[in-house]
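Researcher: Let's walk through a ligand-bound prediction step by step. First, I give you the protein sequence. Second, the SMILES string for zinc ion. Third, you return the three-dimensional complex as structure tokens. Ready?
Model: Ready.
Researcher: Here are steps one and two:
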Amino acid sequence: MTKCTLSLALTLSLALPLISCVALTEPPFEIDRSYQAQGKNQRIHFIILHYTAEDDATSLEMLTTKNVSAHYLIPSTDDNKIYQLVPDHERAWHAGKGGFAGRSVLNDTSIGIEIVNEGIAQQYRGALKRDNLSYHPTEHYVAFQDIQVRKIAQLVQDLAEKYEIEPKNIIGHSDMAPSRKIDPGAKFPWERLYKEFGIGAWYDEADKQHFMNQQAFARQSIADIKQAFRDYGYAINDTDEWDKPSRNVIYAFQLHFRPDNLSAEMDLETYAILRALNKKYGD
Ligand SMILES: [Zn+2]
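Model: Step three, the predicted complex:
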């Protein structure tokens, strides 16, 4: 048996009909799955959360017609819907340049979830320039709806269990691309998702209190603290100062773990939370 295809490109370029034929194997060979390898692991290591900064209709259109996509979309509508736009085993285009936990090219190894949320409220969109701010404060961000939080909880619980994803690898876009991205923003309920639904990573308060030690903090060099960020998973440069790219990492960390006080400065509490996380989730 042969399979014949008409090559349209060639036909157009040569202005001639061109038919190529290849022999098909018959009968087909069998794929035998009775032996299974031990040396393997999951392809998916991360779940990355985003906000779309657009309304439902525009989000759906952008994520289905342009060169940007996500596996799932959580709309803002008050119904029971979660949209799946890309199958889990295929690659969606949501992460872009960045890295986390020693990996780059996170589109290859993650599931992307977009949530319909304004992000920075309309009236604050131009605030950085207008008010000469380096970073958006907490109150510029728009809250997520309760029904969205419950949809996120169900979806992330399922995916984390199915693909055996480590708690600290459930991250925001800003965690992996701190100099480019601020989503899912300061109002994303990381603490609630952890405490109510067992999702993601969160520090123990007692550990944080243990590390709230001003003398110990004062003895840390910038290199030591940057290493602690690296130990947790953040990609941070090794300059000996808190330059803008380094402050972007501090801001991303605070968006996730101290969203009520976004200073983008290294301080005792930020340090204590980082150490508490490394104590709990370190290798
Ligand atoms: Zn994003």
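Researcher: And what stands out?
Model: The radius of gyration is 23 Å. Residues 50, 173, 181, 183 surround zinc ion (CB under 6 Å).
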